[in-house]
Amino acid sequence: MTAPRAEFEMSVHPHQHEEGYLTKVIEHYTSMVPSGVYLATAFGAVGLSLGLRVSGHRDAALYVGLWPPTILLMGVYNKMVKVHGSQ
Hints:
The protein is mainly α and 87 residues long. Helix content is 64%, strand content 0%. The chain contains four helices and no strands. Helix 2 (35-54) packs antiparallel against helix 3. The radius of gyration is 20 Å and the shape is elongated.
């Protein structure tokens, strides 16, 4: 097997591709949401999941328990847009 040629490099350079219009609109409005909202919502979901589990609603508790990672990931994306901007 031969090494890939330098002229066929697959990396993406800064500002090589621009975001679409819909992405820019979404980032504009979501960047207005304070970062603490995502953290508070994730902790709220953990608390809700615990409350559902204690009250005997096992399936609902498991369902709500899956929300915090997604919420925190959206918060990380939001923070990246705020810090690095949108291209």
